[in-house]
Design goal:
single chain; mainly alpha
């Protein structure tokens, strides 16, 4: 499978109209471009998922910094924060799902 075909497949598999889908497709396409699809599907999944955790940590720290020192009963803000975390986790799931489908397609071509 070529990188171009992999990117087309990623874009067809992931609904990028959602925040999590957009994030998943961006990371997946960037990884294919940076690594090559054959390296991407054989790479260390933990290291790949680490990029999502880094994204999560950066955004969590920024958000928590914004609400520090304010009213501790900020339920609405924490709900928003929770939804952001959920989107990142869904993006991780969609990313892995697309990677696995492409890996299986490559195996079937061999």
């Amino acid at each position: 499978m070529t990188n171009e075909k992999a990117i087309q497949t990623i874009l067809s598999l992931i609904d990028s109209s959602t925040a999590s889908g957009s994030m998943a497709s961006i990371y997946a396409c960037e990884d294919v471009i940076e690594q090559d699809v054959l390296e991407w599907v054989e790479g260390d999944i933990e290291a790949m998922l680490g990029q999502f955790m880094k994204h999560l940590k950066t955004n969590s720290d920024r958000y928590i910094g914004d609400i520090e020192g304010t009213d501790p009963t900020m339920g609405d803000e924490l709900t928003i924060f929770s939804r952001r975390l959920e989107r990142v986790m869904r993006a991780m799931i969609e990313y892995v799902s697309a990677r696995e489908k492409i890996r299986k397609e490559i195996e079937s071509e061999r």
